[in-house]
Amino acid sequence: MTATESVGERVRVTLTRPTFWVEWASVVGLVLLVVLFTALDSTFLSAGNIRGMLLASAILTILVVGQAFVILTAGIDLSVASVMTFAAVMFGLAMTHGYGILLSCLVAFCAGAAVGLLNGVLVAKGRITDFIVTLGALSAASGTALILSDGKPITVISAPLFELSAGSVGVVPYTFMIALLIAVLAHVVLFKTKFGTHVLATGGSVEAAQATGIRTTRIKIAVYAISGSLAGIAAILLVARVGSAEPAANMTFLLNSVAAVVLGGVSLFGGKGSIKGPIFGALLLTALSNGLTLLGVSQFYQPLAVGVVVVGAAFLTRFDK
Amino acid sequence: MSESMDLLEIRNLSLSFGSVRALSDVSLHVKAGEITAIVGDNGAGKSTIVRCVAGVHRPDEGDIVFDGQVVNFVRPDQARVAGIETVHQNLALVEDLTVWQNLFLNREISHGVGPVRFLQKKEMRKRARDMVAKLAVNVPSVTSTVRRLSGGQRQAVAICRAAGFSSKLVIMDEPTAALGVQETRRVEELIERLRSEGHAVLLISHNFDQVMRLSDQVWVMRAGKCVAGRRARDTTAQEIVGLITGAIAA
Ligand SMILES: Nc1ncnc2c1ncn2[C@@H]1O[C@H](COP(=O)(O)OP(=O)(O)O)[C@@H](O)[C@H]1O
Ligand SMILES: [Mg+2]
Asked: Does the B6-94+167-245 domain belong in CATH 3.40.50.300?
């Protein structure tokens, strides 16, 4: 047997392993999209466009990390986007009341964390289905944002905030670096710490986790709190990007956060998945909408495209149980 | 050591789930260094006893005395800390975690400050290999996920986890119920090895033949009650069957 044969054999074995496609679907999908869009429009891979895509993906990436933690415990957080809106309004109010940038950031973070914590307590201790709890939180957070802002955008003028949204090192915007840092931290927490193992165990089998004494209610509360806190951080980036805190709903963020996690090979039944997969899922979705815009396809087609891609990915990975 | 002392004593234990009286006034004991069996029909309350001792359920009434002390476990990890390891009927393994992760679940070797605990994976893998090797368990690799293992291998992993960590009492709830002939024999060997290494074993089983071969003491449960206790050498499979069905009065 020659070396090339054994390499070829190994590649064949890897590619035919069903879990390969689950783990790598989002990466392969991203590469395919990049090749396709570059062939159709050479400016797709220009420095400016890459920078634009990274900038656009930062917020989604942060939300996706939180969503991934929740889905890894077999839950779902339907409130992420609304919590982000709520935290953005809180941030805007804090800024207009002269709290200063740092304190206002803290307000946004705490606002998100508080809603997340409430979600977690209701799901874990109140024994209400995650779906209903976070659906309620979705509505309540959007409503509160509307009430607090009186339905109007709150203009936020801040030099550091502008710097945050506009600055970059090469093609990599500051906001994307923040997102990446959060993703790396999340990866470390999930795979290198005791807490991470307990998250996976809780998602894999609540019964088994409890039998070893893992306090699964605490784990569940924690993941929703993480998701809420990250929505709070995402809110700051959102306000920085838009220049104002808008109470408008951001449903696309919610749908895309779930879509990215699924694309990223995280099992909706919990207990199995990664952080990098969902991150590539978020990049894929961003590249998709960016590419379509670049090609002059109407905005209206983008949700349709996302839907097709997500169901397509689920189809590819359906063999994995 | 002719008559060893009681390691576990269950005194007048009762537990109801709503209107179902799963245990009523159950008393039994387990001696150190012995294999003690509990037999009984489906629904007799065997698993419920196990879960009370393991800290999963809290009894409504009665005491559990372990190692000379009355214990009130609120959570399973408290039972584990006290030295009671349980192989539950449903195994309590997480399928998508690896063998070593399951062996060390909630017992992770870690370092760090406060609540931030970083895993020492290498050390755990190494010790997991030792644990598996010590019991001569035929598990392909400690890094494979439990999902890929056969029924017998899973049972072996669960037993391995229970036998590790210097537990004093290992409880096994129907460990061979789902296994083939070969796998059953291996698990039986494991159980005997546990006894020879000084662990007390509480074995729940449906297999009378197995119970008569392995155990030193047999307790019979019927409809939530412990109706009889016999030294294994003083009884026969026929008598046990009679006690289970109620054909023989206790
Ligand atoms: N968590 C529970 N909730 C309600 N009823 C239960 C529960 N666990 C066991 N039971 C009931 O208690 C009785 C004893 O069950 P169990 O201890 O599992 O029996 P065994 O293990 O001897 O087959 C059965 O009637 C069963 O239906
Ligand atoms: Mg049972």
From this structure: yes
